[in-house]
Amino acid sequence: MRLLVVNVNTTESMTASIGAQAAAVAAPGTEIVPLTPAFGAESVEGNYESYLAAVAVMEAVRTYPGSFDAVIQAGYGEHGREGLQELLDVPVVDITEAAATTAMFLGHRYSVVTTLDRTVPLIEDRLKLAGLLDRCASVRASGMSVLELEQDPQAAVEAIAREAGRAVADDRAEVICLGCGGMAGLTEMVVERTGVPVVDGVASAVTIAESLVRMGLSTSKIRTYAPPRPKAFRAWPPSP
Amino acid sequence: MRLLVVNVNTTESMTASIGAQAAAVAAPGTEIVPLTPAFGAESVEGNYESYLAAVAVMEAVRTYPGSFDAVIQAGYGEHGREGLQELLDVPVVDITEAAATTAMFLGHRYSVVTTLDRTVPLIEDRLKLAGLLDRCASVRASGMSVLELEQDPQAAVEAIAREAGRAVADDRAEVICLGCGGMAGLTEMVVERTGVPVVDGVASAVTIAESLVRMGLSTSKIRTYAPPRPKAFRAWPPSP
Amino acid sequence: MRLLVVNVNTTESMTASIGAQAAAVAAPGTEIVPLTPAFGAESVEGNYESYLAAVAVMEAVRTYPGSFDAVIQAGYGEHGREGLQELLDVPVVDITEAAATTAMFLGHRYSVVTTLDRTVPLIEDRLKLAGLLDRCASVRASGMSVLELEQDPQAAVEAIAREAGRAVADDRAEVICLGCGGMAGLTEMVVERTGVPVVDGVASAVTIAESLVRMGLSTSKIRTYAPPRPKAFRAWPPSP
Amino acid sequence: MRLLVVNVNTTESMTASIGAQAAAVAAPGTEIVPLTPAFGAESVEGNYESYLAAVAVMEAVRTYPGSFDAVIQAGYGEHGREGLQELLDVPVVDITEAAATTAMFLGHRYSVVTTLDRTVPLIEDRLKLAGLLDRCASVRASGMSVLELEQDPQAAVEAIAREAGRAVADDRAEVICLGCGGMAGLTEMVVERTGVPVVDGVASAVTIAESLVRMGLSTSKIRTYAPPRPKAFRAWPPSP
Amino acid sequence: MRLLVVNVNTTESMTASIGAQAAAVAAPGTEIVPLTPAFGAESVEGNYESYLAAVAVMEAVRTYPGSFDAVIQAGYGEHGREGLQELLDVPVVDITEAAATTAMFLGHRYSVVTTLDRTVPLIEDRLKLAGLLDRCASVRASGMSVLELEQDPQAAVEAIAREAGRAVADDRAEVICLGCGGMAGLTEMVVERTGVPVVDGVASAVTIAESLVRMGLSTSKIRTYAPPRPKAFRAWPPSP
Amino acid sequence: MRLLVVNVNTTESMTASIGAQAAAVAAPGTEIVPLTPAFGAESVEGNYESYLAAVAVMEAVRTYPGSFDAVIQAGYGEHGREGLQELLDVPVVDITEAAATTAMFLGHRYSVVTTLDRTVPLIEDRLKLAGLLDRCASVRASGMSVLELEQDPQAAVEAIAREAGRAVADDRAEVICLGCGGMAGLTEMVVERTGVPVVDGVASAVTIAESLVRMGLSTSKIRTYAPPRPKAFRAWPPSP
């Protein structure tokens, strides 16, 4: 099967890195197609950039020329998953929700460790909408931006492990979700430092998408995610 | 003071109608500037269209050439308010939230009557995020689309009054919010039919925006709605 | 229009101060009528005094000889708003709820800073009943009583700014509500110290009451706030 | 031990009836002292009357000349319990909460059947404040007023049994609480008609008050229910 | 009346101690019958042991040769109460729930202080199922195991008083529940150290069971706790 | 990899059927080992039987002679998953939770259709503990027992499709979970009748268990699911 794994920002090196993480966990026979939006911010760290990414991701998927079996939205705490579900007949999996449901099979409560303080409320809001906040012990920020994560992985591990440790000790988390696509390479080191399972959203989403496809399940079209009604659009889609 | 009242769809006649409603309630000295997005759907009835509207509304406000004191997002249950709050230093008021908080001063529980069944979950989700769901008795659909509302106001009143009546009798609502920009002209007739206060989101939002400006209050910039960080964008904003 | 602004305690100087705050924000053409209850405690800091105030406020409003367009109950976290709504045909606005809904338009989460530790649960309970607790980060006490606030404004600013700072840093509040009628004069200083918007309940309530009147909206009479049924009372109202 | 059982209305025959119910379940050695407030409504069916009752009940208890070991507030869904807890060193038990906690030992979910539709929100609010709403399936109104209950017990049984039956069948209640002091005599007949346990608030409250006294437990005085602070009162207490 | 008080572990000395606590608070005429399960762990501190205890307690009660009027499950945060309710016609009272409801009559919020950190989530889960978590400020662990409690009561008091103090100061608890059958003897000392009421689950459960019996109330048999349906069992009950 | 799929009842034909369903969805290379408990009820429909099953399932897994990579507890709404998590180092997946999280990727809200009315509260309770109730529209009973399902599949389809239809129309579900191991064969027919995705718990659990194993994730051992502490057991495990 073929899975589109769509980055939310326009940094191609991140798309490559996300694609590699996805491929690393994919089952034999699963083809991972990493996709970068045609427009938007180099990194997504707030609502303005996230709403723009939502539209850019939808356009990237809508105009993807080939066929595919499921789509993974590889942004943590970002807008847009519901729109993809309307547009597509195949399953759509958001990595924020994928990580949370995976974590909930592993411990009584989980925490998310993300990048900047300002993105904490976005993640909390997405988890609230997804109905997955009840067993969330906390969402904590390492204080490192998306781009800093890429540039200084050792400092990133330190900062993330520190917050993960606080989540376990103070917030009573038993599992940690790494709340950023760019954090996946750090999983092993954080496990070593905290002694609890560490969940990567991209990997989780790949296995969930594969599972839905294998079971022949896809988005319900009966109400919320029915296809958009036919109607006139002004100046959209943008001319290429 | 000058208030931008931004339609979420690209139907100019609706922008005019929303602008008229806003002007009707505005205080002396308040100038209402109705705005239509430069791109997007003629009516917004689902997540795909709503995410697109979020970006189009942000672009419309971001590129508005004049000065203004507050912005009203005049779409019911739509995405995007948080992005506007990041972009702007002036207050942003969403009509969904304006209607709900107004209703909560008038009765023990309120219901929303909206257009199509498929938009009910969008409104519920926006109220959930806003923390205003606790006293919401129900969100009900009249079954009429945004455009049908405009074309057959008499049928619209019938359909809306019927659902409002059920909300009062069966869901124990004591106040009704009209869940669509295009419904505002029908307020009086629905009051007559149901005997309960009927709240219009646009009018509520105008008074709230005026009040915030008068009190010298605006969006907190300390965390969630801090200005976007400086960063590179690919192919955005769209060239005119 | 004429707004009754009713103090909950019997200290006339506070009534005057509340009236002045209300007048400062009132629109041109709005007449503020400050009212002091005929009986009750010099300051209200607990349930016994608050229940007594609820009845005294209702009596003050019920026996007010003139006409009026709306009533503001100017006590933070106090009982009684529901009773006023039953008695009156005009809108009733409680400052606790007015401050909270105003704050919710300004930031992701808000905190309340009040006077004594013992009043924290009263405020929490009123916000819970009002369905406005979901985005409340915390209710914190400055440790200063209502009367101390009046006597030593500088110490009050220190104590309030300290707790407001903790609310922002530790509880992740983005907006502060000053949880006492007597705190309104301190708004500006607390803004300077914390860098977040500070909401005053009396000012908020005035603008909300004006807005409701302007929109022609008042309390729903269909169920919870229907007028009291005709019945016999023993020894009440008290003879003058 | 001596228990004060305080009626919330001023109808002496109801006080007597409540006292009789209390005495019927009281343990040997427990003396029941029924008390009628000195002022207030002949029946309490709404917020205005309930706030007045709160103060009247507090005055009745505060001025009771003898000693006592606990107080029962015998009004369903009424205000005031927190004030009594501040004033007294002995336990205070509200019949709404007593019935709910008792019901929760008997079935998975319980419903309350009360008198008039307008009192339903008052009961829901008191249960919400008490944190006892989670397993409440519904609060339903029989449509009969407090005084009608007394006058036509046969019609009362019919109306109550009908709503209790709906609570069991439609709302999935497994236990019924009779939501009015005046309903206690009907317990047996409602059991026969519905086949589920029926809980009387007055009886429940008596056993809980006795138990607290027997265990040497009383209200925590550390914060919320600390004694009122010493302060000046204007024109209160009312001169006799 | 005769109450079965069933220990959840197989340590006879604990059964005796629990029985003594129960007897100390029992009303004249109440006979306490302490029961030890025939199989299971010497102390119950986790889910495996607790599930085993659930079955062992049910077997102990099911095979008890005499008659009895109510059953008390004397394990804090343990599984099994629902099964007993299915098997029996008489009331079943769990000490976790008994303590919580008792505490809720005494203060605005309560905390539980239990033994080991690992049992905290079990208690939280049982309170969540019981719908009694809303006013729970925290569940805290003293760090001492069940058996250590018995061996070193002085150290136990120190550890429990320390956590109780934190619950009062940091979590805003106003009442403490001792979260372990074996803690009952320490009540008085913890009261002295914290100044707040301390609730013992066994004592609470005895008074509640007595009250239910006295009011003629027992488990609703209409749905959740209907008797098990007749069916074939393999290899169960175990041969003696 | 090898997955133990443990039936909760002692009917071997059901074990076989569950095993077949699991095998049908298992990835190449996954070996399904169906297991029947050595003791317990022929079908599990209530708390007594479910608690017994919890212990029997733990014994079956604990004494399973071979190695395995994950365990699936194949009972809907049953007790015991937490105990297995303590005992094992490999992942444990409960089919109730597996179905719910799968459904949440497919639609805005889901409903469960189960067998008997009396098991509805058990399923609701397990979903509440798992924090998966927020987007659950309803749990509905078909009225057919576990054994009737096996005997009359055509009537089962009718009854299930009827309740599924009501869940979609009345409760606004967009996805249906079949709430019983024995229902899996009916999936396709229910899809045809309702037009919404139908999720089978066993299939979902198999894919989730495989995914966890593939990602190298297992139960957090840091607190709630730490291994049982070493201690003495009386008369347990039962002698063979």
TrEMBL record, chains A, B, C, D, E, F:
It comes from the Bacteria. It catalyses: D-5-benzylhydantoin = L-5-benzylhydantoin; a D-5-monosubstituted hydantoin = a L-5-monosubstituted hydantoin. Signal peptide: none annotated. Its EC number is 5.1.99.5. GO terms for molecular function: amino-acid racemase activity; hydantoin racemase activity. Transmembrane segments: none annotated. Belongs to the HyuE racemase family. This is Hydantoin racemase. It comes from Pseudonocardia kunmingensis.
